[in-house]
User: What shape does this take?
Amino acid sequence: MPRRRILSLWFPRLGAERLMRAARGLQTGPLAVVAEQSNMQVISAMNAEAETAGLRIGQPVRDAHAMCAALITRARNAPAEASFLTAIRRWAGKFSPWVAEELPDGLVIDLSGCAHLFGGEETLLSVVEQDCADMGLSVQMGIADTLGAAWALARYAGQEATSDRNGDAISQEARATRARAGKRRHWTRGGAAPQVVALGGGARIAPPGQTYGALSPLPIAALRLEDHTMAQLNRLGLRRVGDLLGQPRAGLARRFGRGLVARMDQAMGSAPEPVSPARPPHHFAVRMTLPNPIGLEEDVMAAIDRMLPTLCTRLEDKARGVRTLRLEAHRTDQAAEVVEVGLARPSFDKYRIRPLLEMKIDQIDAGYGIDMLRLEAVQTEPVHARTLTGHAEASRAVRDRLAGNTAVDDLIGKLGARVGLEAITRRHPAASHIPEKTAQTLAAAWSEPARDWPAPSRPRPLLLWQPEPVTAPDTSAVPQAFRWRGRDWRLAQASGPERIAPEWWLDDPNWRSGVRDYWVVVTEQGDRLWLFYGHGGTMSSGWFCQGSFG
Assistant: This one.
């Protein structure tokens, strides 16, 4: 079995070079990508010209402009950078099928048994460097036996281990710690120090079995440690990986936690760290190229009738149902007409999907003719079989009824094809003691109908509205007469009170009247109203009417 070999690719200027590629090389001069960090704008990526001007990653933008007046800044687009890295991962698949992303700017490739196909590791890195140069990308590479070692070589090979402290702090470090760490290099026990093969373009190769010697001269940041851990190690004078590898493991774990020891084990190969490639996304699409252009709705539907069963079969094989389906009609004049339909429930049933497409056909302008049609399942979801419990016969009858009862979902889909699925909603119960928050509105296409509504502890009015002021004496006793909506009302009967307190963890403007005492009031005119007395919080107390029992 071949020895495991890992290639780490680091794109230090990924964010800036993505923008330069989008500008087709027209972007000249120093360029920096700006991100928001701790209520301050800092540099997250920059091009080579900006580095030459002395700028650095993490530097505040105001300081960067003071150092480089010609600096051009652009806001960071993290999702676009992630998509760009995914595209680079697909390119890296030419070297090995095992490629994983290391957000935000790196890739990891398992080269085990693959490097000889390119003439060896050095030749492979030359191909990688040339490909990246053709794509306008800066890259640093490292190959080692472990993922942690390759990551360290790609980012820190050739860098000297320095301290971020000076003066009295350094002079007060423990001399015994520094002296003991300096004497524990493994090659002092015999033999020469292992050499790291250095190639052009920032590439480093650690020979097989030489991980210890390759990592020893690197700074401790190469172990992917947290900032506070590196600061503590610097205070003790431990600045190189070799200084840590020579220390007792029990003492390191006791003082700095198991995270430090785990990172050391991963880098040296004592702890597993597999390369997990991204799972390919589900893709369901069919197309039909026509020998002669068509333009009639009947011809388009005939083509759909031939494509749709194939698409539905592929969906059924993967146990997935389509929620959003796109129909593309490519015309002879190189234009394309696109329509989309949505389903209220994921399905691979062609008899449910076809009527929705037929409703959208009249929106397609055939122009001089359509020579290619394409159906794509844009959004899919798993379709799970439902198993009902109960008596054998009753369970079978209910299961058969539910399996064929798709009328509501079909209706929602047809209405959604006309007015949009987001315009069709349904009410669902919500857990809250606030009367107006006991129900929530959800999209009908992405929610199941509510079966059982919990019964309230007290009767609730049929109609609810925003509290309206009632003219009555400012006391907690139910008024015998009050004025509301320009009319005078007299009390015939009242039941209550029901005390409801506001949600103290939220500042709801509608509940700034404080604790409320709700009363069901029957007037002499026969109306049943829902009145409450607000005891006063951030606003004055008083009587209000919030609903009617019909």
Notes: The first strand starts at residue 6 and ends at 10. The chain has 17 helices and 21 strands. The two ends are 81 Å apart (CA to CA). Confidence is low (pLDDT under 50) at residues 166-194.
